[in-house]
Amino acid sequence: MKAIIIGAGLAGLTMGCELVKKGHTVTVYEQNSFIGGVMHHAQKNGYEWEQGPLMLTSFDGGGACRRILSSLGVTYDVMFCDRGSVFPDFALWKPVKYAGPLWRKEELLKQFPDEKKGLDAYYSFYDHMLTLYDIQDKLEEKKSLWYSLRLFIAFLWIKKYASMSAEELMDTFFKNDHLKTVFIAILADLCMKPCELTALAVPSLNIETAFDKRIYTKRGKLIDPHFTYIAGGTERITEQLGAVIEENKGKIVTGATVEKVIVENGRAVGVRLSDGKTDTADVVIASGGAKELFFKLVGRQYLSDEYIKTVSEILPMEAVFMVHLGLDFDPMQYQKSELCYYYLTYDIDGAVDDMRKGIYHEGRQGFLIYVDSAHGDNMAPKGKYAVTIYTVAPDTLLSANWEDKKERYADMLLELAEKYIPGLRSHITEKVIMAAPDYRKLMHVDHVSFGGLVPLIGHIRPGHITPVKNLFFIGAQSESGGGVNTQIRAMHKLFKDVISNANTAKH
Questions:
Q1: In the 8-state DSSP scheme, what is residue 292?
Q2: Residue 479 and residue 462: Cα distance in Å, rounded?
Q3: What is the rounded average pLDDT for all residues in the chain?
Q4: Would you state the CATH architecture of domain 2-35+232-314+453-506?
Q5: pLDDT at residue 506 is higher than 70
Q6: At the N or C end, where does the chain have fewer CB atoms within 10 A?
């Protein structure tokens, strides 16, 4: 079988590896001059920066991604990681001396002494949800009647919360709005309101090991997620995936723009490139933007009204605004961890509303500071430090444009960051600013959705298997959603369906 893959991001490269390792012919077309998509590092004068802090689960030990990548011939080292959280009137940093797995609960009880009952209830819910997550992982690896029964029993414990939104869950447990924000502030990163997320996802956004890497993850036969960085940056993963494809006689063609998916008799049979050349294949596997693929490269005439409605109604996340810095001093003399989220507002609904309207908060509602160079000597020249400061931002500004404003906005972000890292601006040796137009070009989309689609309750994502036979849709805007962990696992599962559907179509 021959497969054409559109896009050499993580999803496309992983799928390409799965196919070539099983002896299939693969050609990957990538518009950029490099592979990796948003996992490709920004670079300048000996510095490298990731496109934000990629804290990953299941990449260590016997984790699912470790197993999958190992089977594909990809090797890497990891470094355990955690983060701090700073709010307008208090901060949560892991204690210098390890204080156990529930230190955040104890700290929050000090801040909110009237909320003991709610905190007890939340952490009971949290424990049951982590049990559920772990059983789901085990079932994904191998079907088991025992774990299926365990899953059913675990669900019974949290069934009463299943129909709630994150907002309703927080209202059930807590009275204080500031305490609620501790558990839902990160939703602003997803460009979504607490009323739009299912309650059952809240613990997944607040895994306690993310705030203290010393927390022991094993609970009997169950294992809680642990967070790691890839040593040297996540680009190490996509580089190796690309190498595996080429070592197994697959082709990766960079600087090649696919402008049309060729459809004959309701079946994808190949692609046409912008230079007029065509290439045929048994299957076409496309990543990228849903609207760009289905409405431009494919064409509405090949889609049902229902599918057109599904694609039309997707809600992309918004963009990010990043300032990558080279520094000649160590910022961790002021910041206690390599990563800290500075949440500077308690009004998550208002922040999301403004973003969707094109109103940029100019950093005043929050940002994060990430020290890239803490996770690889390659990230900065000796004696120097690579740092990324970023915040979520609208794709399109309501009353200005990014090219005119990005220098000014970068200055404003650095001024805010300097409140936490004194003298920051006087130690800058390099600077790279990346705004929505840069990410539109990098991702080849009309609207930047940096993490994919907003995971709305009850919202249908465009499926991997599409109305066009032998055309598959993958990546952050597909049914698998965004995330490094998610993409690798989804592609590992999907490639069997790709082969099966292609074989069925031949007959």
A1: I
A2: 6
A3: 94
A4: 3-Layer(bba) Sandwich (3.50)
A5: no
A6: C
